[in-house]
Design brief:
Elements (H helix, E strand, L loop, with lengths): L2 E5 L6 H12 L6 E5 L13 E3 L7 E4 L13 H10 L4 E4 L1 H9 L3 E17 L4 E14 L4 E6 L2 E7 L5 E4 L7 H9 L5 H5 L10 H6 L13
Helix pairs in contact: 1-4
């Protein structure tokens, strides 16, 4: 059985951690799930997957979002950077994952004055325009080795692919589907005012469509193996 490694960087949160990861793993049926949370000592106990202290064997890697900031580098991030540099399997990054992958591969990430929390339009190089959920204050301003395939009015670099390695990243949160947003209020991860920032909460692309169903901007359609 192939192994999916989730670099679980919201493992302290019920909704965007547990429920968000639950949504991600639904897109990888018949995979063994490993959960790695190098940023905290006591992650939430999920009802699925196996918690590990350090990654070893894996066939696919997903790096999630985080409440930490690439622009404010912390020692544990060196362990994630090592994984990115050495990874020889498909690697996908969401929000923080997008930022740290670009940073490690020669890019630059800065913290801007205002946080973005909204559903906004994403413009892909192939002409597709979709609405996606953003919640971030760090911005990638140089993607390094990664090729930019999409932008938004508030951020020039919101989706990338690597030209030679199987790496793809997005700044938005395709895993934050309506049920995750609803649960985030129920469990206290967000209050009603914070939830209202995302309007109807409807995104055009879910996880699979974001990573496997969009042309990479260079004439190659990305699909799940």
């Amino acid at each position: 059985m192939p192994i999916l490694l989730i670099v679980d960087l919201l493992a302290e949160r019920e909704a965007f951690g547990k429920k968000g990861v639950e949504e991600i793993v639904k897109h990888f049926p018949k995979h063994e799930i490993l959960l790695w949370a190098p940023h905290i000592e006591n992650p939430i106990d999920y009802s699925f997957g196996t918690r590990i202290d350090e990654p070893d064997e894996y066939d696919i890697v997903v790096i999630t979002g985080s409440r930490r900031n690439v622009s404010m580098w912390e020692p544990w991030m060196d362990r994630v950077a090592k994984l990115i540099k050495e990874c020889e399997v498909p690697l996908y990054g969401i929000c923080f994952g997008h930022q740290i992958i670009c940073k490690v591969l020669g890019g630059e990430v800065i913290r801007v004055e205002e946080k973005t929390e909204n559903i906004l339009s994403v413009n892909y190089n192939d002409g597709k325009v979709v609405n996606q959920l953003f919640t971030h204050q760090d911005h990638v301003i140089d993607s390094g080795e990664m090729e930019v395939i999409a932008s938004s009015a508030h951020c020039d670099i919101v989706a990338c692919v690597h030209p030679t390695r199987e790496i793809k990243t997005v700044q938005f949160h395709p895993e934050a589907i309506l049920s995750v947003l609803k649960y985030s209020v129920e469990c206290g991860d967000m209050d009603e005012e914070e939830r209202d920032c995302f309007g109807d909460g409807i995104q055009d692309l879910d996880f699979s469509a974001s990573f496997f169903g969009i042309d990479d901007g260079f004439g190659n359609s990305c699909c799940l193996g």
